[in-house]
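Long-time lurker, first post. I've been practising inverse folding by hand and with some scripts of my own, and I keep getting stuck on stretches where the structure tokens seem ambiguous. Below is the full token string for one chain I'm working on. Before anyone asks, I'm not after the true native sequence, just a reasonable design that respects the backbone. If someone could post their per-position residues I'd love to compare against what I wrote down in my notebook.
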């Protein structure tokens, strides 16, 4: 009896199982299976993985900042090389001008020597003529000859007066010959001195040209080397950026956060560009309306700032710019300047200050000495601020415009821009011209 009940229960169980299985198969065909339900352990591991990726993001962001700083250092090193080359070119121009002036003085001295030689020949000819006339006409017979040859007292007096006139003319001719000889000696001495000076100036110009050629070649070589280093830095940066992107893409929350940040950056950049355009256009309008009158005080400072601001967006060109505006510059590893017009840092300062009649030197390290040195802590709008790396020479100049900002022509590939006043490499003294 017990065995029969067991068999009955087993059969019933099998039937139920078959029925349930058939029903389950029918339901599975009608709707998808529910997603898996992760355990608490799986959720904890996911949170830990997200935290680890967030830490990787922070590390990679710091590495990117370090690479950006290295790129800035490379640009500063290149700017220092270029400033040295530009200073050598300024020295070359001065030496060539001195050689030209010395050559002109030597040529003028040669002309004076030739004129003195002609004067000697003319004085000698005049004296020879007087002596010959005196001999041929017997005017050198002396007092006794005049007495014996005179036909009357009047004739004697006339003969005496004429003889005295001839004697005076002969004396004047002799004095003229002596003066001409002295003048020629002086002219010869001046010509020799001028020629020596011209030779020295030509030698100095040749040495300056050699130094300038070497400096420009060094700057070009540095530009090529820095371009390679910058390319390496850019490649490293791209690799780090890819890792950063991969780390951020692994988590939806980080992606959303990055997207919000990117949109914020885009909006801020658009607003900044709009402000820059508005400031530039307003400055250009003020420059055009101001004319060319002489200004003093704050009005002069405002004109200098306006002239600089009116060039925002103009491209950087090494050696470009002067008091009249943007210009072609010096050939470098980044291309010929013949089709590139713009400013470098010192050229922008020359243009800005020329609007109030101030002529600045061409090179930034010389512009540092163009006015009064004031502590950076006491700078005012219109003051020039300068940068250098360590103990190296000054390589960059910008203009403080107030509100903690400055305007500059930074480096190749960038444009004239307004940025917050940088403190890295900033000299403790600024230069105040107005």
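-- Answer (accepted) --
I ran through it position by position. Result:
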């Amino acid at each position: 009896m017990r065995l029969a009940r067991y068999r009955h229960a087993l059969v019933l169980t099998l039937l139920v199982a078959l029925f349930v299985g058939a029903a389950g198969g029918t339901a599975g065909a009608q709707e998808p299976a529910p997603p898996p339900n992760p355990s608490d352990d799986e959720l904890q591991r996911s949170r830990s993985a997200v935290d680890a990726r967030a830490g990787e993001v922070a590390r990679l962001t710091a590495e990117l900042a370090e690479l950006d700083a290295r790129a800035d250092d490379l640009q500063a090193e290149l700017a220092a090389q270029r400033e040295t080359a530009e200073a050598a070119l300024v020295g070359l121009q001065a030496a060539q001008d001195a050689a030209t002036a010395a050559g002109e003085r030597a040529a003028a001295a040669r002309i004076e020597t030739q004129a003195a030689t002609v004067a000697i020949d003319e004085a000698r000819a005049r004296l020879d003529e007087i002596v010959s006339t005196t001999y041929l006409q017997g005017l050198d017979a002396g007092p006794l000859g005049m007495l014996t040859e005179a036909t009357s007292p009047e004739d004697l007096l006339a003969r005496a007066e004429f003889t005295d006139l001839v004697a005076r003319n002969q004396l004047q001719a002799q004095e003229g010959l002596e003066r001409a000889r002295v003048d020629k000696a002086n002219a010869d001495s001046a010509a020799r001195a001028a020629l020596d000076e011209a030779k020295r100036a030509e030698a100095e110009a040749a040495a300056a040209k050699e130094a300038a050629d070497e400096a420009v070649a060094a700057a070009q070589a540095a530009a090529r080397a820095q371009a390679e280093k910058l390319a390496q830095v850019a490649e490293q940066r791209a690799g780090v950026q890819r890792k950063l992107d991969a780390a951020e893409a692994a988590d939806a929350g980080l992606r959303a956060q990055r997207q919000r940040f990117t949109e914020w950056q885009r909006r801020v950049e658009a607003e900044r560009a709009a402000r820059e355009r508005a400031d530039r256009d307003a400055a250009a309008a003020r420059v055009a309306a101001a004319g060319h009158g002489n200004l003093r005080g704050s009005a002069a400072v405002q004109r200098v700032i306006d002239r600089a601001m009116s060039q925002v967006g103009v491209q950087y060109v090494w050696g470009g710019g002067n008091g009249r505006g943007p210009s072609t510059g010096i050939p470098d590893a980044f291309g010929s300047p013949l089709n590139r017009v713009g400013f470098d840092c010192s050229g922008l300062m020359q243009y800005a200050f020329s609007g109030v009649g101030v002529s600045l030197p061409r090179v930034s390290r010389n512009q540092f000495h163009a006015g009064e040195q004031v502590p950076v802590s006491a700078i005012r709008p219109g003051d020039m601020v300068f940068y250098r790396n360590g103990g190296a020479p000054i390589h960059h100049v910008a203009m403080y415009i107030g509100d903690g900002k400055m305007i500059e022509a930074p480096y190749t590939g960038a444009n004239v821009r307004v940025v917050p006043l940088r403190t890295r490499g900033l000299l403790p003294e600024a230069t105040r011209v107005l």
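A couple of notes from the structure itself: The radius of gyration is 46 Å. Residues 40-136 form the longest helix (97 residues). Happy to go over any region you disagree with.
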